[in-house]
Design a protein that fits this description.
By secondary structure, the chain is of the alpha/beta class. The chain contains 14 helices and 12 strands.
Amino acid sequence: MTQQKSLFARWAEALDGLKSQGRFRSLKPPRGLDFTSNDYLGYGNGRLLDCNAASGENIPPLAALQTLTSGIASRLLRGHHPIWDAVESALCGWHNAESCLVMNSGFTANEGLISTVVEPGDWVASDELNHACIAEGLRVCRPRKFSFQHNNLAHLEEGLRKEAAQRPAGREMFVITESLFSMDGDRSPLAAIVELAERYGAHVIVDEAHSTGCFGPGGSGIVDELGLRSRVLATVHTGGKALGVSGAYVCGSTLLRDYLVNKCRHLIFTTALPPAIGDWWLDMLPKVRADDAGRDALSTNAARFHAMLAERGVPTIGDSYIVPVVLGDDPRAVRVATTLQERGYDIRAIRPPSVPQGTARLRISIHADHEPALLDQLSEHVAEAIRR
């Protein structure tokens, strides 16, 4: 009789395998200059408070607003608070959207939206580099899946054409993409994707997590920048990146919102965000809408840093404030990241399964409040670390 491994032995073996591949992960607190977080506009480090002081606005303290520090219950029970009505109304105005629904995180918003609106037997075309939360949503709802090559319109149309010709009665078609990809830092060809979807009768869902605050009218995202709001089924936005606040939300029709409130398990069966966080949202929204200077600085810094690395012979992907430097080999990416951490930069190595096999990389996150001299210094240190 073959002796079975204990549960703990199974775990230990799996972790040893990750260590041998250079993929073992551990939790590390922030250390050094921030070039790894998604705090693109610099709000997370106190800049938002500086904006309040500079504007001369008298923002009342949270206690004065008599808000709660716990969500208490789900939003369908005692967890709903009038402040979320105010937040969702402000978000609708920002995006010129018919309706918005606040949820606890970007992961749950994406997974909850997709697993609720997509049913088994429906057909979904998903960009192969879409975030894990999109993959999880599709795993839960079990549709017929078509993974199209990254930003490849011809491959997407091939899938759409075949499905449209043989779609079963009563089944729907969807196309899901990110507007700005979190690991490659490139934009999707959204306008062309929407046109293809309309041609073949598919609904479009767009994850705007990494573009919200940084693109479009008043920073509302790439979908709004391109005037596509009325032509997509839904967009998903997060607060915990450029906006510097906890939570996320889905934009779409009033019918979609009602459907999610009644059907989305990720909303129904989870404790609501604390109303105190709603105050942060109401404080942040007018600031980000007016922060064209921050968006301009972010765009300028991103272009400058890409150019600086190119001058030093370091190739990058995309042209956004997410700057991937692909090194290929997992241990090599860890070594280069460690060298940069020792120089005082908080830069982490990104390895599979977060990125495809053989594409381990540095993911350098540029912020609006990074000084030009610091970017020049970092570009030199990146080049040195890679040469070593």
